[in-house]
Design a protein that fits this description.
- The complex is a heterodimer of chains A (347) and B (259).
- Chain A is mainly α.
- In chain A, 76% of the residues lie in helices and 0% in strands.
- Chain A is globular.
- Chain B is of the alpha/beta class and 259 residues long.
- Chain B is globular, with a radius of gyration of 19 Å.
- Chain B has a 6-stranded mixed β-sheet with strand order 6-7-8-3-9-10, sandwiched between helices.
- Classes of the chains: A mainly alpha (347), B alpha/beta (259).
Chain lengths: 347, 259
Protein backbone atom coordinates (compact mmCIF):
# COMPACT_ATOMS: atom_id res chain seq x y z
CA UNK A 1 0.00 0.00 0.00
CA UNK A 2 2.78 2.43 0.97
CA UNK A 3 4.65 1.27 -2.11
CA UNK A 4 1.77 2.27 -4.39
CA UNK A 5 1.54 5.69 -2.80
CA UNK A 6 5.25 6.30 -3.24
CA UNK A 7 5.10 5.31 -6.91
CA UNK A 8 2.07 7.52 -7.44
CA UNK A 9 3.88 10.36 -5.72
CA UNK A 10 6.94 10.06 -7.95
CA UNK A 11 4.96 9.81 -11.18
CA UNK A 12 2.71 12.79 -10.47
CA UNK A 13 5.46 14.98 -9.09
CA UNK A 14 7.66 14.16 -12.08
CA UNK A 15 4.90 14.86 -14.59
CA UNK A 16 3.95 18.18 -13.03
CA UNK A 17 7.56 19.22 -12.65
CA UNK A 18 8.12 18.63 -16.35
CA UNK A 19 4.98 20.62 -17.11
CA UNK A 20 6.26 23.41 -14.89
CA UNK A 21 9.61 23.62 -16.71
CA UNK A 22 7.87 23.65 -20.07
CA UNK A 23 5.44 26.35 -18.92
CA UNK A 24 8.39 28.36 -17.66
CA UNK A 25 10.12 28.43 -21.06
CA UNK A 26 6.89 29.05 -22.98
CA UNK A 27 5.77 31.92 -20.78
CA UNK A 28 9.18 33.58 -21.05
CA UNK A 29 8.77 33.52 -24.85
CA UNK A 30 5.43 35.31 -24.71
CA UNK A 31 5.25 39.09 -24.46
CA UNK A 32 5.34 42.30 -26.44
CA UNK A 33 8.67 41.21 -27.88
CA UNK A 34 8.26 37.65 -29.04
CA UNK A 35 11.30 35.42 -28.59
CA UNK A 36 11.74 32.14 -30.48
CA UNK A 37 11.73 28.92 -28.47
CA UNK A 38 15.34 27.79 -29.04
CA UNK A 39 16.70 31.25 -28.41
CA UNK A 40 14.79 31.52 -25.12
CA UNK A 41 15.97 28.10 -24.08
CA UNK A 42 19.58 28.97 -24.90
CA UNK A 43 19.48 32.23 -22.94
CA UNK A 44 17.99 30.43 -19.96
CA UNK A 45 20.50 27.59 -20.10
CA UNK A 46 23.38 30.00 -20.42
CA UNK A 47 22.54 31.37 -17.00
CA UNK A 48 22.85 27.95 -15.41
CA UNK A 49 26.27 27.22 -13.93
CA UNK A 50 27.04 24.14 -16.05
CA UNK A 51 26.34 25.71 -19.42
CA UNK A 52 28.52 28.11 -21.33
CA UNK A 53 27.06 28.81 -24.76
CA UNK A 54 28.31 31.19 -27.41
CA UNK A 55 25.80 34.04 -27.49
CA UNK A 56 23.71 34.20 -30.64
CA UNK A 57 21.51 36.79 -29.03
CA UNK A 58 21.70 40.46 -28.18
CA UNK A 59 22.24 41.90 -24.72
CA UNK A 60 18.76 43.38 -24.91
CA UNK A 61 17.26 39.97 -25.46
CA UNK A 62 19.23 38.62 -22.54
CA UNK A 63 17.95 41.46 -20.36
CA UNK A 64 14.36 40.82 -21.41
CA UNK A 65 14.63 37.19 -20.44
CA UNK A 66 16.75 37.45 -17.34
CA UNK A 67 15.80 40.78 -15.81
CA UNK A 68 12.27 41.38 -16.99
CA UNK A 69 10.40 38.17 -17.63
CA UNK A 70 12.09 35.55 -15.53
CA UNK A 71 11.73 37.27 -12.14
CA UNK A 72 8.08 37.73 -12.88
CA UNK A 73 7.72 34.09 -13.93
CA UNK A 74 9.37 32.97 -10.71
CA UNK A 75 7.22 35.32 -8.69
CA UNK A 76 4.12 33.77 -10.26
CA UNK A 77 5.39 30.28 -9.50
CA UNK A 78 6.21 31.09 -5.88
CA UNK A 79 2.95 32.93 -5.20
CA UNK A 80 0.90 30.22 -6.90
CA UNK A 81 2.61 27.56 -4.81
CA UNK A 82 2.02 29.54 -1.61
CA UNK A 83 -1.66 30.20 -2.21
CA UNK A 84 -2.41 26.70 -3.41
CA UNK A 85 -0.64 24.90 -0.55
CA UNK A 86 -2.46 27.20 1.89
CA UNK A 87 -5.72 26.19 0.25
CA UNK A 88 -4.92 22.49 0.77
CA UNK A 89 -4.00 23.10 4.39
CA UNK A 90 -7.11 25.17 5.18
CA UNK A 91 -9.45 22.77 3.42
CA UNK A 92 -7.89 19.78 5.12
CA UNK A 93 -7.78 21.20 8.62
CA UNK A 94 -11.21 22.82 8.52
CA UNK A 95 -12.71 19.87 6.62
CA UNK A 96 -14.30 22.33 4.27
CA UNK A 97 -13.57 22.22 0.53
CA UNK A 98 -14.60 25.87 0.21
CA UNK A 99 -12.01 27.11 2.69
CA UNK A 100 -9.59 29.27 0.77
CA UNK A 101 -7.55 32.18 2.12
CA UNK A 102 -9.44 34.60 -0.12
CA UNK A 103 -12.96 33.34 0.64
CA UNK A 104 -12.26 33.23 4.38
CA UNK A 105 -11.18 36.86 4.30
CA UNK A 106 -7.59 36.08 5.24
CA UNK A 107 -6.23 37.73 2.10
CA UNK A 108 -8.10 40.96 2.66
CA UNK A 109 -6.90 40.96 6.27
CA UNK A 110 -3.35 40.63 5.01
CA UNK A 111 -3.92 43.46 2.53
CA UNK A 112 -5.30 45.61 5.31
CA UNK A 113 -2.19 44.93 7.37
CA UNK A 114 0.05 45.74 4.44
CA UNK A 115 -1.85 48.96 3.71
CA UNK A 116 -1.53 50.03 7.34
CA UNK A 117 2.21 49.55 7.25
CA UNK A 118 2.55 51.44 3.96
CA UNK A 119 0.55 54.37 5.32
CA UNK A 120 1.79 54.69 8.84
CA UNK A 121 5.06 52.86 9.14
CA UNK A 122 6.62 53.62 5.83
CA UNK A 123 9.83 54.95 7.27
CA UNK A 124 10.08 52.82 10.34
CA UNK A 125 13.55 51.36 10.20
CA UNK A 126 12.96 49.12 13.19
CA UNK A 127 11.95 46.09 11.16
CA UNK A 128 13.09 47.41 7.81
CA UNK A 129 12.45 44.87 5.10
CA UNK A 130 10.14 42.84 7.28
CA UNK A 131 7.70 45.61 8.23
CA UNK A 132 5.15 45.04 5.49
CA UNK A 133 5.22 41.22 5.54
CA UNK A 134 4.90 41.30 9.31
CA UNK A 135 1.91 43.61 9.26
CA UNK A 136 0.44 41.57 6.46
CA UNK A 137 0.84 38.37 8.47
CA UNK A 138 -0.71 39.95 11.55
CA UNK A 139 -3.66 41.16 9.49
CA UNK A 140 -4.11 37.69 8.01
CA UNK A 141 -3.98 36.06 11.43
CA UNK A 142 -6.35 38.56 12.97
CA UNK A 143 -9.00 38.13 10.31
CA UNK A 144 -8.70 34.34 10.44
CA UNK A 145 -9.13 34.38 14.20
CA UNK A 146 -12.13 36.63 13.77
CA UNK A 147 -13.72 34.30 11.19
CA UNK A 148 -13.14 31.23 13.35
CA UNK A 149 -14.57 32.89 16.44
CA UNK A 150 -17.58 34.11 14.51
CA UNK A 151 -18.28 30.73 12.95
CA UNK A 152 -17.94 28.84 16.21
CA UNK A 153 -21.36 27.99 17.47
CA UNK A 154 -21.79 25.78 20.50
CA UNK A 155 -18.36 24.35 19.96
CA UNK A 156 -18.88 23.26 16.38
CA UNK A 157 -18.62 24.91 13.02
CA UNK A 158 -20.69 23.92 10.07
CA UNK A 159 -19.47 24.51 6.59
CA UNK A 160 -21.83 27.23 5.44
CA UNK A 161 -21.40 29.22 8.65
CA UNK A 162 -17.66 29.38 8.09
CA UNK A 163 -18.14 30.77 4.59
CA UNK A 164 -20.69 33.31 5.82
CA UNK A 165 -18.32 34.39 8.56
CA UNK A 166 -15.71 34.85 5.84
CA UNK A 167 -18.11 37.11 3.94
CA UNK A 168 -18.78 39.18 7.05
CA UNK A 169 -15.11 39.65 7.84
CA UNK A 170 -14.28 40.35 4.21
CA UNK A 171 -16.87 43.15 4.02
CA UNK A 172 -15.84 44.67 7.32
CA UNK A 173 -12.11 44.64 6.68
CA UNK A 174 -12.74 45.61 3.06
CA UNK A 175 -14.55 48.70 4.37
CA UNK A 176 -11.60 49.56 6.63
CA UNK A 177 -9.31 49.13 3.67
CA UNK A 178 -11.43 51.42 1.49
CA UNK A 179 -11.40 53.94 4.30
CA UNK A 180 -7.61 53.80 4.45
CA UNK A 181 -7.46 54.32 0.70
CA UNK A 182 -9.80 57.30 0.93
CA UNK A 183 -7.64 59.09 3.49
CA UNK A 184 -4.33 58.04 2.02
CA UNK A 185 -3.87 60.73 -0.66
CA UNK A 186 -0.43 60.19 -2.12
CA UNK A 187 -0.10 56.49 -1.58
CA UNK A 188 -3.56 55.84 -2.91
CA UNK A 189 -2.34 54.14 -6.05
CA UNK A 190 -0.01 51.88 -4.19
CA UNK A 191 -2.81 50.69 -1.93
CA UNK A 192 -5.33 50.24 -4.70
CA UNK A 193 -2.73 47.91 -6.09
CA UNK A 194 -2.98 45.61 -3.05
CA UNK A 195 -6.65 45.22 -3.61
CA UNK A 196 -6.38 44.14 -7.21
CA UNK A 197 -3.22 42.11 -7.16
CA UNK A 198 -0.47 42.31 -9.74
CA UNK A 199 2.81 40.61 -10.45
CA UNK A 200 4.20 43.51 -12.47
CA UNK A 201 7.28 45.52 -11.55
CA UNK A 202 9.03 43.10 -9.27
CA UNK A 203 12.66 42.16 -9.11
CA UNK A 204 14.67 39.11 -8.14
CA UNK A 205 14.83 40.58 -4.64
CA UNK A 206 11.10 40.13 -4.10
CA UNK A 207 11.35 36.57 -5.30
CA UNK A 208 14.30 36.00 -2.99
CA UNK A 209 12.39 37.44 -0.06
CA UNK A 210 9.43 35.12 -0.62
CA UNK A 211 11.31 31.87 -1.12
CA UNK A 212 12.19 31.32 2.57
CA UNK A 213 8.51 31.74 3.48
CA UNK A 214 7.46 29.22 0.86
CA UNK A 215 10.22 26.80 1.83
CA UNK A 216 9.47 26.96 5.56
CA UNK A 217 5.70 26.91 5.11
CA UNK A 218 5.76 24.03 2.68
CA UNK A 219 8.22 22.11 4.82
CA UNK A 220 6.00 22.47 7.88
CA UNK A 221 2.85 21.49 5.99
CA UNK A 222 4.64 18.49 4.49
CA UNK A 223 5.23 17.18 7.99
CA UNK A 224 1.47 17.35 8.66
CA UNK A 225 0.30 15.25 5.72
CA UNK A 226 -0.67 12.24 7.82
CA UNK A 227 -2.51 14.48 10.29
CA UNK A 228 -4.39 16.20 7.49
CA UNK A 229 -5.55 12.77 6.34
CA UNK A 230 -6.55 11.78 9.84
CA UNK A 231 -8.61 14.88 10.53
CA UNK A 232 -10.84 14.07 7.56
CA UNK A 233 -12.38 11.36 9.76
CA UNK A 234 -13.71 14.13 11.98
CA UNK A 235 -12.22 15.99 14.92
CA UNK A 236 -13.31 13.58 17.63
CA UNK A 237 -12.28 10.50 15.61
CA UNK A 238 -8.85 12.05 15.04
CA UNK A 239 -8.58 12.80 18.77
CA UNK A 240 -9.44 9.21 19.59
CA UNK A 241 -6.65 8.09 17.29
CA UNK A 242 -4.18 10.13 19.29
CA UNK A 243 -3.94 13.38 17.37
CA UNK A 244 -3.76 16.63 19.29
CA UNK A 245 -6.38 18.28 17.13
CA UNK A 246 -6.64 21.74 18.69
CA UNK A 247 -2.89 22.30 18.77
CA UNK A 248 -2.33 21.02 15.24
CA UNK A 249 -5.19 23.06 13.89
CA UNK A 250 -3.84 26.29 15.33
CA UNK A 251 -0.36 25.67 13.96
CA UNK A 252 -1.50 24.70 10.49
CA UNK A 253 -3.78 27.73 10.28
CA UNK A 254 -1.01 30.02 11.53
CA UNK A 255 1.40 28.69 8.93
CA UNK A 256 -1.26 29.08 6.22
CA UNK A 257 -1.79 32.68 7.32
CA UNK A 258 1.94 33.26 7.21
CA UNK A 259 2.10 32.00 3.64
CA UNK A 260 -0.88 34.12 2.63
CA UNK A 261 0.44 37.16 4.45
CA UNK A 262 3.83 36.93 2.77
CA UNK A 263 2.25 36.46 -0.66
CA UNK A 264 -0.19 39.35 -0.24
CA UNK A 265 2.51 41.66 1.10
CA UNK A 266 4.30 41.45 -2.23
CA UNK A 267 1.61 40.98 -4.87
CA UNK A 268 -1.66 42.00 -3.23
CA UNK A 269 -4.89 40.03 -3.28
CA UNK A 270 -5.13 37.21 -5.77
CA UNK A 271 -8.23 35.18 -5.08
CA UNK A 272 -9.48 31.67 -5.71
CA UNK A 273 -6.12 30.00 -6.48
CA UNK A 274 -6.34 28.02 -3.25
CA UNK A 275 -9.87 26.97 -4.13
CA UNK A 276 -9.58 25.95 -7.77
CA UNK A 277 -6.27 24.15 -7.82
CA UNK A 278 -6.65 21.80 -4.82
CA UNK A 279 -10.13 20.87 -5.93
CA UNK A 280 -9.04 19.91 -9.45
CA UNK A 281 -6.07 18.03 -8.05
CA UNK A 282 -8.34 16.16 -5.64
CA UNK A 283 -10.34 14.98 -8.64
CA UNK A 284 -7.12 13.82 -10.31
CA UNK A 285 -5.12 12.21 -7.51
CA UNK A 286 -7.67 11.59 -4.74
CA UNK A 287 -7.87 12.83 -1.17
CA UNK A 288 -4.54 11.56 0.22
CA UNK A 289 -2.57 14.61 1.37
CA UNK A 290 0.72 12.79 0.91
CA UNK A 291 0.13 13.24 -2.81
CA UNK A 292 -2.37 16.07 -2.81
CA UNK A 293 -0.15 18.60 -1.02
CA UNK A 294 2.95 18.41 -3.26
CA UNK A 295 0.87 18.07 -6.41
CA UNK A 296 -1.39 21.01 -5.59
CA UNK A 297 1.64 23.12 -4.74
CA UNK A 298 3.19 22.43 -8.14
CA UNK A 299 -0.12 22.81 -9.96
CA UNK A 300 -0.80 26.11 -8.17
CA UNK A 301 2.55 27.40 -9.40
CA UNK A 302 1.74 26.40 -12.98
CA UNK A 303 -1.79 27.77 -12.77
CA UNK A 304 -0.73 31.20 -11.56
CA UNK A 305 2.07 31.36 -14.11
CA UNK A 306 -0.42 30.91 -16.95
CA UNK A 307 -2.95 33.23 -15.36
CA UNK A 308 -0.24 35.91 -15.20
CA UNK A 309 0.95 35.24 -18.74
CA UNK A 310 -2.64 35.74 -19.82
CA UNK A 311 -2.91 38.90 -17.73
CA UNK A 312 0.10 40.52 -19.38
CA UNK A 313 -0.48 39.36 -22.95
CA UNK A 314 -4.22 39.16 -23.63
CA UNK A 315 -4.50 42.84 -24.50
CA UNK A 316 -1.36 44.11 -26.28
CA UNK A 317 0.60 46.74 -24.32
CA UNK A 318 -1.98 46.69 -21.54
CA UNK A 319 -1.98 44.81 -18.31
CA UNK A 320 -5.01 43.24 -16.65
CA UNK A 321 -4.79 42.76 -12.86
CA UNK A 322 -4.17 39.07 -12.26
CA UNK A 323 -6.81 39.03 -9.53
CA UNK A 324 -9.33 39.78 -12.26
CA UNK A 325 -8.23 36.75 -14.26
CA UNK A 326 -8.33 34.37 -11.29
CA UNK A 327 -11.73 35.75 -10.28
CA UNK A 328 -13.06 35.22 -13.80
CA UNK A 329 -12.14 31.56 -13.49
CA UNK A 330 -12.61 31.19 -9.75
CA UNK A 331 -16.01 32.76 -9.12
CA UNK A 332 -17.94 30.52 -11.56
CA UNK A 333 -15.98 27.60 -10.12
CA UNK A 334 -17.02 28.61 -6.61
CA UNK A 335 -20.62 28.84 -7.78
CA UNK A 336 -20.36 25.36 -9.26
CA UNK A 337 -18.92 23.90 -6.05
CA UNK A 338 -21.61 25.59 -3.99
CA UNK A 339 -24.37 24.30 -6.24
CA UNK A 340 -22.95 20.79 -6.27
CA UNK A 341 -22.66 20.90 -2.51
CA UNK A 342 -26.21 22.06 -1.99
CA UNK A 343 -27.57 19.35 -4.24
CA UNK A 344 -25.67 16.59 -2.55
CA UNK A 345 -26.18 17.96 0.91
CA UNK A 346 -22.45 18.32 1.38
CA UNK A 347 -19.66 19.85 -0.59
CA UNK B 1 -6.93 -2.57 40.55
CA UNK B 2 -9.87 -1.34 38.55
CA UNK B 3 -9.50 -0.40 34.91
CA UNK B 4 -11.86 2.55 35.26
CA UNK B 5 -12.72 4.40 38.44
CA UNK B 6 -15.44 6.95 37.81
CA UNK B 7 -15.47 9.07 40.93
CA UNK B 8 -18.23 11.49 41.73
CA UNK B 9 -18.48 12.75 38.16
CA UNK B 10 -20.85 15.53 37.30
CA UNK B 11 -21.24 17.59 34.18
CA UNK B 12 -23.32 20.47 33.03
CA UNK B 13 -23.81 22.25 29.73
CA UNK B 14 -24.24 25.88 30.70
CA UNK B 15 -26.50 25.70 33.71
CA UNK B 16 -28.22 22.46 32.69
CA UNK B 17 -26.94 19.47 34.64
CA UNK B 18 -26.41 16.41 32.44
CA UNK B 19 -24.60 14.09 34.81
CA UNK B 20 -24.88 14.10 38.57
CA UNK B 21 -22.85 12.22 41.11
CA UNK B 22 -21.86 9.35 38.84
CA UNK B 23 -19.74 6.74 40.56
CA UNK B 24 -18.88 3.22 39.42
CA UNK B 25 -15.96 0.96 38.53
CA UNK B 26 -15.12 -1.23 35.57
CA UNK B 27 -12.74 -4.15 35.81
CA UNK B 28 -10.38 -5.45 33.16
CA UNK B 29 -12.09 -7.85 30.74
CA UNK B 30 -15.67 -6.84 31.42
CA UNK B 31 -18.30 -6.16 28.79
CA UNK B 32 -19.99 -3.22 30.35
CA UNK B 33 -23.20 -1.76 28.95
CA UNK B 34 -24.55 1.72 29.53
CA UNK B 35 -28.29 2.03 28.95
CA UNK B 36 -30.96 4.63 29.53
CA UNK B 37 -33.54 6.75 27.68
CA UNK B 38 -32.69 9.54 25.26
CA UNK B 39 -31.16 12.49 27.07
CA UNK B 40 -30.22 10.48 30.14
CA UNK B 41 -26.54 11.41 29.73
CA UNK B 42 -25.15 8.20 28.17
CA UNK B 43 -23.22 9.86 25.39
CA UNK B 44 -21.87 12.57 27.67
CA UNK B 45 -20.68 9.93 30.13
CA UNK B 46 -18.95 7.95 27.41
CA UNK B 47 -17.30 11.11 26.10
CA UNK B 48 -15.84 11.86 29.50
CA UNK B 49 -14.60 8.27 29.74
CA UNK B 50 -12.88 8.39 26.36
CA UNK B 51 -11.06 11.54 27.39
CA UNK B 52 -12.84 13.75 24.87
CA UNK B 53 -14.73 15.79 27.40
CA UNK B 54 -13.54 17.19 30.69
CA UNK B 55 -16.31 16.73 33.24
CA UNK B 56 -17.32 19.80 35.25
CA UNK B 57 -16.71 17.91 38.47
CA UNK B 58 -15.26 14.68 39.80
CA UNK B 59 -12.61 12.58 38.14
CA UNK B 60 -12.08 9.53 36.03
CA UNK B 61 -9.14 7.23 36.64
CA UNK B 62 -7.80 4.86 34.02
CA UNK B 63 -5.50 2.26 35.55
CA UNK B 64 -5.41 4.42 38.67
CA UNK B 65 -4.25 7.52 36.83
CA UNK B 66 -6.42 10.49 35.89
CA UNK B 67 -7.49 10.13 32.29
CA UNK B 68 -6.73 13.80 31.72
CA UNK B 69 -3.06 13.18 32.50
CA UNK B 70 -2.54 10.79 29.58
CA UNK B 71 -1.01 12.09 26.39
CA UNK B 72 -3.43 11.76 23.46
CA UNK B 73 -1.23 9.25 21.69
CA UNK B 74 -0.77 7.11 24.83
CA UNK B 75 -4.51 7.12 25.41
CA UNK B 76 -5.12 6.05 21.81
CA UNK B 77 -2.92 3.00 22.40
CA UNK B 78 -5.20 1.96 25.27
CA UNK B 79 -8.67 3.04 24.16
CA UNK B 80 -10.31 2.81 20.75
CA UNK B 81 -13.68 4.45 20.19
CA UNK B 82 -16.39 3.61 17.70
CA UNK B 83 -18.49 6.69 17.31
CA UNK B 84 -22.18 6.86 16.67
CA UNK B 85 -21.74 8.87 13.47
CA UNK B 86 -19.35 6.36 11.97
CA UNK B 87 -17.11 7.32 9.08
CA UNK B 88 -17.96 10.43 7.05
CA UNK B 89 -18.46 9.97 3.28
CA UNK B 90 -14.81 10.23 2.24
CA UNK B 91 -13.18 9.21 -0.99
CA UNK B 92 -10.37 7.49 0.89
CA UNK B 93 -10.38 3.75 0.25
CA UNK B 94 -11.37 1.17 2.85
CA UNK B 95 -7.76 0.11 3.19
CA UNK B 96 -6.54 3.68 3.71
CA UNK B 97 -9.15 4.41 6.36
CA UNK B 98 -8.39 1.19 8.23
CA UNK B 99 -4.65 1.94 8.06
CA UNK B 100 -5.30 5.25 9.83
CA UNK B 101 -5.91 3.16 12.94
CA UNK B 102 -2.15 2.57 13.14
CA UNK B 103 -1.59 6.28 13.79
CA UNK B 104 -0.88 6.09 17.55
CA UNK B 105 1.74 3.38 16.99
CA UNK B 106 3.65 5.09 14.20
CA UNK B 107 6.77 7.02 14.98
CA UNK B 108 6.37 10.64 13.91
CA UNK B 109 6.87 11.07 10.15
CA UNK B 110 7.45 7.39 9.46
CA UNK B 111 5.41 5.28 7.06
CA UNK B 112 3.60 2.07 7.81
CA UNK B 113 6.04 -0.77 8.30
CA UNK B 114 5.55 -4.22 6.84
CA UNK B 115 4.27 -5.32 10.23
CA UNK B 116 1.72 -2.50 10.26
CA UNK B 117 0.51 -3.49 6.81
CA UNK B 118 0.22 -7.08 8.02
CA UNK B 119 -1.98 -5.96 10.90
CA UNK B 120 -4.19 -3.99 8.50
CA UNK B 121 -4.50 -6.97 6.18
CA UNK B 122 -5.45 -9.32 9.02
CA UNK B 123 -8.19 -6.97 10.20
CA UNK B 124 -9.56 -6.55 6.66
CA UNK B 125 -9.72 -10.30 6.23
CA UNK B 126 -11.22 -10.94 9.64
CA UNK B 127 -14.08 -8.50 9.03
CA UNK B 128 -14.77 -9.60 5.47
CA UNK B 129 -13.54 -6.35 3.95
CA UNK B 130 -10.71 -7.76 1.88
CA UNK B 131 -12.63 -7.61 -1.41
CA UNK B 132 -13.76 -4.06 -0.69
CA UNK B 133 -10.33 -2.77 0.27
CA UNK B 134 -9.79 -0.57 -2.79
CA UNK B 135 -13.32 0.88 -2.76
CA UNK B 136 -13.81 4.46 -1.57
CA UNK B 137 -15.73 4.43 1.72
CA UNK B 138 -18.37 6.80 0.33
CA UNK B 139 -19.48 3.95 -1.96
CA UNK B 140 -20.23 1.65 0.97
CA UNK B 141 -23.49 1.01 2.77
CA UNK B 142 -23.96 2.10 6.37
CA UNK B 143 -23.41 -1.45 7.56
CA UNK B 144 -20.19 -1.85 5.62
CA UNK B 145 -18.94 1.49 6.88
CA UNK B 146 -19.50 0.40 10.45
CA UNK B 147 -17.39 -2.69 9.71
CA UNK B 148 -14.66 -0.37 8.43
CA UNK B 149 -14.84 1.56 11.70
CA UNK B 150 -14.51 -1.68 13.60
CA UNK B 151 -11.53 -2.75 11.49
CA UNK B 152 -9.89 0.60 12.13
CA UNK B 153 -10.42 0.14 15.86
CA UNK B 154 -8.91 -3.36 15.61
CA UNK B 155 -5.67 -2.22 13.99
CA UNK B 156 -5.42 0.36 16.74
CA UNK B 157 -4.79 -2.66 19.02
CA UNK B 158 -6.37 -1.13 22.11
CA UNK B 159 -6.94 -2.75 25.49
CA UNK B 160 -10.35 -1.07 25.79
CA UNK B 161 -13.03 -0.70 23.15
CA UNK B 162 -15.67 1.95 23.64
CA UNK B 163 -18.73 1.84 21.41
CA UNK B 164 -21.30 4.61 21.32
CA UNK B 165 -24.56 3.11 20.04
CA UNK B 166 -22.80 0.99 17.43
CA UNK B 167 -25.96 -0.53 16.01
CA UNK B 168 -28.30 2.47 15.82
CA UNK B 169 -28.39 2.87 12.05
CA UNK B 170 -27.98 -0.79 11.13
CA UNK B 171 -30.38 -3.52 10.03
CA UNK B 172 -30.64 -6.58 12.28
CA UNK B 173 -28.17 -8.55 10.14
CA UNK B 174 -25.46 -5.93 10.48
CA UNK B 175 -26.36 -5.35 14.13
CA UNK B 176 -25.61 -8.98 14.90
CA UNK B 177 -22.52 -8.96 12.70
CA UNK B 178 -21.01 -6.03 14.59
CA UNK B 179 -21.93 -7.45 18.00
CA UNK B 180 -20.60 -10.92 17.16
CA UNK B 181 -17.28 -9.53 15.96
CA UNK B 182 -16.97 -7.43 19.10
CA UNK B 183 -17.70 -10.48 21.25
CA UNK B 184 -15.18 -12.59 19.38
CA UNK B 185 -12.55 -9.91 19.78
CA UNK B 186 -13.40 -9.65 23.47
CA UNK B 187 -13.03 -13.39 23.93
CA UNK B 188 -9.87 -13.88 21.90
CA UNK B 189 -7.90 -10.86 23.11
CA UNK B 190 -9.46 -10.29 26.50
CA UNK B 191 -10.15 -6.63 25.78
CA UNK B 192 -12.56 -4.67 27.91
CA UNK B 193 -15.68 -3.54 26.07
CA UNK B 194 -17.75 -0.59 27.15
CA UNK B 195 -20.81 0.16 25.09
CA UNK B 196 -23.71 2.53 25.05
CA UNK B 197 -26.72 0.66 23.74
CA UNK B 198 -30.26 1.67 22.93
CA UNK B 199 -31.44 -1.84 22.36
CA UNK B 200 -32.09 -3.45 25.73
CA UNK B 201 -32.31 -6.92 24.20
CA UNK B 202 -28.84 -6.63 22.70
CA UNK B 203 -27.54 -5.17 25.96
CA UNK B 204 -28.92 -8.12 27.86
CA UNK B 205 -27.35 -10.64 25.47
CA UNK B 206 -23.92 -9.07 25.02
CA UNK B 207 -23.07 -7.42 28.35
CA UNK B 208 -22.09 -8.97 31.64
CA UNK B 209 -22.78 -5.84 33.64
CA UNK B 210 -25.06 -2.88 33.03
CA UNK B 211 -25.34 0.70 34.16
CA UNK B 212 -28.80 2.22 33.89
CA UNK B 213 -28.86 5.99 33.64
CA UNK B 214 -31.94 8.10 34.16
CA UNK B 215 -31.91 11.86 33.87
CA UNK B 216 -28.21 12.15 34.64
CA UNK B 217 -28.34 9.88 37.69
CA UNK B 218 -27.39 6.26 38.15
CA UNK B 219 -30.61 4.31 38.57
CA UNK B 220 -28.90 0.99 39.02
CA UNK B 221 -25.64 -0.71 38.26
CA UNK B 222 -24.81 -4.39 38.40
CA UNK B 223 -25.57 -7.82 36.92
CA UNK B 224 -27.90 -7.92 33.92
CA UNK B 225 -30.69 -9.68 35.85
CA UNK B 226 -30.56 -7.13 38.65
CA UNK B 227 -30.61 -4.05 36.42
CA UNK B 228 -33.21 -5.19 33.92
CA UNK B 229 -36.17 -5.27 36.29
CA UNK B 230 -39.43 -4.89 34.33
CA UNK B 231 -40.96 -2.41 36.77
CA UNK B 232 -37.88 -0.13 36.70
CA UNK B 233 -37.51 -0.29 32.92
CA UNK B 234 -41.19 0.37 32.42
CA UNK B 235 -41.19 3.42 34.64
CA UNK B 236 -37.95 4.93 33.31
CA UNK B 237 -38.87 4.51 29.65
CA UNK B 238 -42.54 5.33 30.37
CA UNK B 239 -43.62 2.40 28.22
CA UNK B 240 -45.62 -0.75 28.64
CA UNK B 241 -43.32 -3.71 28.32
CA UNK B 242 -43.43 -7.44 28.84
CA UNK B 243 -40.35 -9.22 30.04
CA UNK B 244 -39.68 -12.78 28.93
CA UNK B 245 -36.76 -15.11 29.25
CA UNK B 246 -34.71 -15.69 26.13
CA UNK B 247 -35.45 -19.35 25.24
CA UNK B 248 -31.85 -20.03 24.18
CA UNK B 249 -29.65 -17.71 26.24
CA UNK B 250 -31.75 -17.49 29.41
CA UNK B 251 -31.42 -13.71 29.69
CA UNK B 252 -34.21 -11.15 30.06
CA UNK B 253 -35.75 -9.86 26.84
CA UNK B 254 -38.40 -7.21 26.38
CA UNK B 255 -41.46 -7.14 24.17
CA UNK B 256 -43.20 -3.89 23.36
CA UNK B 257 -46.96 -3.81 23.73
CA UNK B 258 -49.13 -1.46 21.69
CA UNK B 259 -52.07 0.19 23.39
Amino acid sequence: MEEIIRTKQIIWTGALFALLLMSLVLSVMIGSVHLPFTLTLKILLNHLPLFDLTPTWTLAQDAIVWNLRLPRVFLALVIGAMLSSTGVAFQGMLRNPLADPYILGVSVGAAFGAATSILFFRNSSLLGYLTTPLFSFSGALLSLWFVMALAKHHGQRDRETLILAGVVVQSLIGAFLSFLIAISGQQMQEIVFWMMGSLANHSWQDVGMLIPYLALGFFYLSLQKRDLNLISLGESAATHLGMNVEKKKIWVLVVGSLLTGAAVSVVGIIGFVGLIVPHLMRLLVGPDHRILLPISTLAGAIFLLWADTLARSIIPSREIPIGVITAFIGAPFFAYLLKKGLRRGHV
Amino acid sequence: MNLFDVIHVQHQFGTIPVLQDIEFQIKVGETFGIIGPNGSGKSTLIRTMSGLLKPSGGKILLNGKSIRSYRKRELAKIIAVLEQEGIPPLSFTVEEVVAMGRYPWLKPLSDLSLKDEQIVQTALEKLGLWNLRTKPVNNLSGGQRQMVSLARAMVQQPRVLILDEPTTFLDIGHQMLVMEHVREWHQSEGITVIMVLHDLNLASQYCNRLLLLDNGHIKSCGEVHDVLQPATISSIYKTEIIMINHPVHQVPQFLLTSK
